[in-house]
Amino acid sequence: MSCWRRLRGVAAAAVLLLGVPAAAAWAQDYQGPPILRKGEVDGMTDAMYKAAFMDWQTGKGARPADVPDIFGPGAVLNVGNIYMKITNNGWIGNPSLATSSDPSAQWPGASGIEYLNVFSLAVGGVNPLATDPNAVRRVSSGGEWRPATLDPVDKIYRAYDGILNGARYINDDQDSDPITGLPRIDEDFLDGRDNDLDGKIDEDFAAIGQQMFSCMMRDDTPQAINTAFAEKHVPLGLECQQLAWAYSIPGFTNFNVIQWNVINRSGHVLDSLVVGGVVDMDCGPIDKANYWSDDFDLGPFPSGVFPHEVATTDKRRQGPDMRAPNTPKDAAPDSALCSHFDVKIHGFSTVDDDGDEGKTTGIPTFMLVGHTIDPLGESGPRQVGFAAYRAYTGGTPYGQGGAPRVDQQRFELMCGTQPNGVDADGNITAPPGDQKGDWQYWWSCGPWRNLPDGGNVQVTLAFAISLGTNRLGRQYAGDYALYKAGGFPDGDVGILSKYPSLDNCYAVQVAFEGVYEEKSDWPMLTNGHGRETPVHPDAGEGSVTVSDCRDLVPRTVTYSGPTDWFDFDCNYCTGAYDSQKRLGMFHRTWNADAPPPNPNLNVASGYNFSANPDRIVPAGDNRVTLAWDNLSETTPDPKTGWLDFRGYRVWKAAGWTRPVGSAGPADDDWSLLAEFRHFYYYDPTTNQLVARNYSYTESGDSICPKVKVPNYHFPEGSDVCKHSPTARPALDGGCLDSATVDVCLRLGDLWDIQSGQIIHPSPNIDCVREGGNCVAASGCILGREVCGEPANQEQRTRYPVGRYELVDNEVKNGFVYFYSVTAFDSTGVNQTKLELSGRRAAVEADGVVPQISAGTGKNVWVVPNPYRGYTSIQQRPSSWDLIPNGSDPTGTHIDFLGLPRGRWTIRIYTVSGDLVQTISSAEAVNDAIRNPVNGLPGYNTQQDNPNDGQARWNLISRNGQDIVSGIYLFTVESDAGTQRGKFVVIR
Question: Are 414 and 273 contacting, i.e. CB atoms less than 8 angstroms apart?
């Protein structure tokens, strides 16, 4: 692992390595807000928890887009198999179902099976300037981290690999350091601020994964300082830049990654900085009472050291073709310097005792992936590893091995002055617990000494889940010992195959290690084999004399001269070099392929709201109009630079009943509605785009290819629908049957081979414009090897939502439906051909409810009538009613149909004339689960658009009570006059 080292004085003085890839983790059972799934914790009640996170400006609970982002539906990683909530309040996970129905970490997908309660960020340090003894050693943990301000800019930001201005390791804005002249790359963290003071905001940041959330937190805001749980919070003056990301590509979907960059903003040196926290992994169905109480601790499962063979394309190998004759001398002339390297896994796990009758089939693992290191061990750890580890069941006193309750206890635990459960190499030595219960953990890494003002420490962790059982996990210690002794069957392959958790964690660490590649335009490249650390004196220091483990004599580096590189970790594999080209290799971490990002949809909650003036309304009369943009087509692959988009898959989820703990449809709820391939090809002979797939006759008639379509749609009344024995009915009155038809395609069309349906790009949608000009993306033509040559580059114009439209008539008014459009690519040829696709996903706020068209207002009726309520949700005949949750406490509704255009008011009465409820056309429908968008109310109103003739009522009276069985009367007042009617409720 490479790192940046700045030496002061004339020798290798103790300094901190800043800004180096690293790893860390979070934790819980601090004396902070309670884990409300479990009721009262550490003396904190639900009311106290909510009070800690009230909106400081309005006195009301914060909405999802406000700060802090803890209430309501927030940022949830959901492109992989782990649905995990990210906050900007010192927590990962959802500690309170009373404030949000988001999952903490469910797997697989929105399954309702939780594997995490919460883990928190904790950073401890020594303030050498503090005069109050109580302020010298402090720890900022959990809710003591807050957004920098309450301004809207201080929120969680969303990005993905390939987003505009977010290319990793690329100088997006083509700027340079005014002092050194070197390019400034990925210098502007994505947080809505001008971090590099160049007058631009978020113009050059590093996006990673198919979904990424970023935010900035501090421990010294007024809200953080006023956080009072067990003791008064005393800040250290720290800032944390947090990244959280997930992948949708095969082999990477069962882990999520968290990265903290902790920066000293105190104005002075901080000593003995440690990073860690509490981890509370709970395994079980969320609808099962006390599902966390029967878990077992698996200790350091699946930690270990395993060899990894370096790919032949990875320049880390430094084979004979990269070495000058006899250089270096300690490698055979025909061998690679680094054919293998050790993969070190640091983590711990929890498991359910019996799998909950086949429901809880996974094992969650908390991994310390990497953190800032100092190969000399002077300013920080020499290698990645834990500094402290403690496992305990909830409620265990601190003196008996339980959770620390105050900063003094936290600091002494994190610094390892108490029994720390790890060895000198940072490996966990504490054995697994032998009883089941609610297991929780404290961990830490570090310490880092004398962190200067502006200095930073980076920590990276992963939360991984894989198939496994308690019985299997408890066999690991013996099997690993057997493996290290050389006696495990099939060695590496055998033990990785037996333990899916190990295989998953191994994949995490290998991905983090990445690859070495040739990148001659990178500003800082090593100048020798194995030299991983650059050294250059600061201004005014003159020169420094340094030696490493391979130098026969020390080397002198001057301020006026070039940067020199040293091998302080005595490892050829952490600094790859080509002696023949005299060129250092670039280390690309988290090296992974990426599918195109999924397009933006008109059903997304951030688009489909009544106040959106540009909206393409999805909900119609027994129909849903789905519209999307061409973002997927205009995003180059971040690894190859190719514009390799190939097509879209359209998914639909119907019959969703909102299972307990579910944030949206589960994987099994989705069905494929259509798959469209993009007609966009280059003619290899002319190097021009193919304009069409058909030709013309001399008379001007088109000759199109004839294609057999399995599910061709015939209109109502056709002879096929009347006479074909294989025809299948469609809801719109037509039918489906196999047919051979002409398929005429033009450049840019989308074509479904199963149905023969063709979607033409809309000619009525203007391009996305900036400064009056169409925005276009540049990339390499798919398959071209030299992307830098102009002849291999192409541009694609960006279009907004509405570029493509698809109508689904297979829906019924009043029911909720979900849609997801995923993009896929196509790269490689023959055996190397690879197709990657985005993941289908949606949350409750993205649901669409078809609405009957507006009528005259003189014939309004109620559906269903009578309404029949059932004691058990399982007795309900359809998904019309949903399982209650915090935002919808009844889950029931009736709908008024045939409402007129224009304003109207519905009043509902008992037969004795008592007013029960009033509903207006402008009333919000789903404001409890929607965010404000660009200063506009992000919810839908009862009259969602002028043609909406349907309104919903949840059977709650104006006094907040469920209505009882009986006959109810209603009036509808509008410009068309007043109509009266009645309906029946049976409960």
Answer: no
